[in-house]
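Um, can you check?
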Amino acid sequence: MALSVPRALTRRLPRSTAGALVAGVGFIALATIAVGTIVVLGGRDIGAPLPPTLFRLRPELSLFALPAAALLAVAVPLARRVSLPSVAPGTFVLTALGLALVLRLALNAARNGPSDWWIFFDPRFGEGTVEYLSALPALDFGVPLFLDRFAETATALPVHAVGHPPGLLSVVGVLGIETAPAFAALIIAAGVLCTPLVYLLARELLREEWSARAATLLFVFAPNALVYGASAADALYATLGALAALALVSRRRLVRHLAGPAALALATFFSYANLAVGAFGALVVWLREGWRPALGVAASAAAGLVVAYVAMFAVFGFDIVGALSATADVYRASIARIRPYWYFLFGSPVAWMLALGPPIVLFWLRAVAARQAVALALGAVVLISSLGGFTKAETERIWLFLVPFACVAAAAVLPRRRLVPVLGALAVQAFLMQVLLGTVW
């Protein structure tokens, strides 16, 4: 079966070609930043204050930043220590999980203190007025009726509620969550669980313990994962996407063809973006095993989605087609209408790569040159997502579900001696992003 893998994809590119790839992407990124800056300075609003990102230059250095800086400084040598073979895998995973939680909380409190863990979700303030809790009245008559009427009433809901499937709000209704701190606790707890999933995904795809640990630590320190990990629902969606990917690429047929589609259906019930995880899984299997197994994964995933949403319609009356149509209508009438496709065709991936961290991007691109399956599959998904144009701008947050895959890809070629400098650079970038730049999250 391995013979069915395209032969060209099994050969490593020359070092010079890898360098050209990195240089080419770097040139495109600089050109994208320059063009966006010129357009904005010329007076045109393209929906990206600091193009191509949604960041704004908003420095704020308070006493709350000191604990964050100290913890980041201590975390880098601790990460190096737990990456050593002498540390048991279980101890490593628990330590990485603890690091991710502590660093996300500390960094997200670096501007205004612990209130920033939940203020963005509060329907009384700022972005909270269009976030999920502003849609709580739609749950007044219970989750079943909410699902039954979602497609018909979605356009009347706040933008974040209509922009996503009703999975998260359904959980909010079932759990009886009514306050921003409780909602934030759900997001933070679920989001940080992506950390052990990255470790398991890297073990599955890279097959080396050190590489799996490197991938996990890259994810722990990835700037966008840290900055948005305690302030955006996309952190929860990333966890569900990583779980689906882990199942879809499993070498165990039962897991791949049953658990994989089920996990993918669950992930897409929370975020439409997680549909890309199905494509990612099929591409990885194709590059690793050939087209027949990949076709099986794609067929299983598609069948799982059909079965899941037909069942949702039969039991609750949830109309996925109508929900997608409502989302598309709202998206076309939203700020996306002023965001030029020609610019964000390049701007969206560049914004994501900038927030992901240039060190991770560098090694991901080197992994592409090395013909690593996970790196090539991620590249294809990023390209398709950009061409689709449904996530123009905000991709430093919206594409958070792709961060685990980038970290696994980068770890595949990351030399051991580079781990500490890379983690240090990521920690510095994350801190500077938090104290110098501002977003609505």
Summary: Strands lie at 56-57, 437-438. The first strand starts at residue 56 and ends at 57.
